[in-house]
Amino acid sequence: MRKLSRILILTMILTLVLASNAWADSGIVSGGVVNLRSGPGTQYELVGTLSKDTRVEVIQSRSGWHQVQYGDVQGWITGEYLTVTQSPKLRVTGDMVNLRSGPGTNYPQVGQAKKGEILDLVDTCDQWYQIRTAAGLQAYISANYITTVNSGTSTSPAQPAPPQPSVPALPGKTPAVFYNGQKLAFDVPPMIDNSRTMVPLRAIFEAMGATVTWNQSTQTATAEKGDTTVILPLNSTTPTINGTVTKIDVPAKLIDQRILAPLRFVGEAFGGTVGWDQASYTIDIQLKEEPTPSPQPVRTNLVVIDPGHGGTETGTIAEGVMEKDITLDIGLRVGNILRNRGIPIQLTRTEDVNVGLQERADLANELNAAIFVSIHCNSFNNVVSGTETLYYAPESNPELFAMKAERQELAQAIQDQLIASLMRKNRGAKEDNLSVLRNTRMPSALAEVMFLDNPEERALLLQDSTKQQAAEAIATGIQNFMQR
Ligand SMILES: [Zn+2]
Q1: For 201, which of 149, 186, 261, 440 could close a Cys bridge (C-beta 3.0–4.6 Å)?
Q2: From ligand 1's centre to the CA of 314, what distance in Å?
Q3: Span from the CA of 390 to the centroid of ligand 1 (angstroms)
Q4: Is the pLDDT of residue 8 over 70?
Q5: Homologous superfamily of domain range 303-482
């Protein structure tokens, strides 16, 4: 019986351990578009790209590189472009504290933690913390028996956080608080608590441009500004900034219906700096105002290559030859050529699969690609022949019209190279309302390499040498446009 229950507990532990790996350190991509490789070095194969601000899970770190997981994709990213956040640590303060399978005493006990034991914080859930022990057990522990040890963000290699100078206590005198040079007025003045200066949270956060809400039932203040969310429960020493626990040594408290919180926490929560001038009894909070985000996404030098059609969507079929196969062949070649020339690329498909038209444009938009080029073959009446490249920038669409010159230049640059290389009839760079051109937000073009239904051109399109020439022409056209 005893043996059986041990086995049961062990099974539960294993289930818990295997169930999730949310405890892992997380990282945020800091570069514009960063390459994901199959190993820790630039010599390894490119397996994908990640755009700025993507949150990834860090699996392991080696020689300045991190192995990360994003959705189903796994790969290595250089530490230069990844900000790693280590999971916060907790220390057990109770003597022998029960670890449970869920956030409450009604959940089964799955283990115990000794006083002084250090645990990794996985998540918080009311008065319970989801934790992971050094042995790898993931479980829940009551918040009453733990204290926060530290938390922090470090770029790799891990560096110790700089020591925080403390703002001295100010006995018997109320300091003046300046925010970006402007004196703030409070209906509840700053005060000293446990030799820490406590300041009115809402007044200061609102002066910084944050929105502050108060939840009466959970006694929690939430402040939001830009991408940053600060959550501060009353009487708690573990507020979170974007989900990361930040320890404060004096808890926030309610005085005359106003929340007072430690000055340094309030001043720095949104990335500000706190200065203290003893002579004038002045606190000076400085926060660089972020420029109004521009609607234009950050441009990168990423090129998205879009081999037309795929999967059940074959495109033109002529004498059994399918457009989707020719476009994929040429598209993969364009990708290889650009990559070998040091230009980061992303293909909308690398296999014979269906990809939606909107999905193709969305991918390029999400990656903030610099250029989008779609590859197709034309068809008409088995007689017409030649090469044309399309773009779209109508006056009726102001966003696209603003890019008219660029879009036209991109299409012309590709068309020029295709004509010079393939020497087919020049049908020109022309405007056409096509989904991928209409829905991409960067300069985009669509090359109709040749007519697949024209017997002469079909024979050419089946030759590797022609497909390579077409790919080199498209790649060079893209490069010429980038270097214009
Ligand atoms: Zn097509």
Answers
A1: 261
A2: 9
A3: 12
A4: no
A5: Zn-dependent exopeptidases (3.40.630.40)
**pLDDT tens profile 458-475:** 999 999 999 999 999 999
Residue 270 Cα to ligand 1 middle (Å) = 49
The rounded Å distance from CA 375 to ligand 1 centre is 8
Q: Where are the domains of the chain?
A: 2-155, 176-286, 303-482
CB burial of residue 207 (10 Å; 0-12, 13-18, 19+)? middle
Q: For residue 168, is pLDDT > 50?
A: no
Residue 134 C-alpha to ligand 1 middle, in angstroms? 56
CA–CA–CA angle 103, 105, 106 (5° rounding) = 95
CATH superfamily of 176-286: Copper amine oxidase-like, N-terminal domain (3.30.457.10)
Summarised one tens digit per residue, pLDDT across range 309-334 is 999 999 999 999 999 999 999 999 99
The superfamily in CATH containing domain 2-155 is SH3 Domains (2.30.30.40)
Q: How far is the CA of 472 from the centre of ligand 1 (A)?
A: 20
136 token code pair: 């790898």
What is the pTM (predicted TM-score) of this model?
0.43
Pick the more confident residue, 303 or 226: 303
CA 309–ligand 1 middle distance (angstroms): 6
- Could you tell me the distance, in angstroms and rounded to a whole number, from the CA of residue 366 to the centre of ligand 1? 23
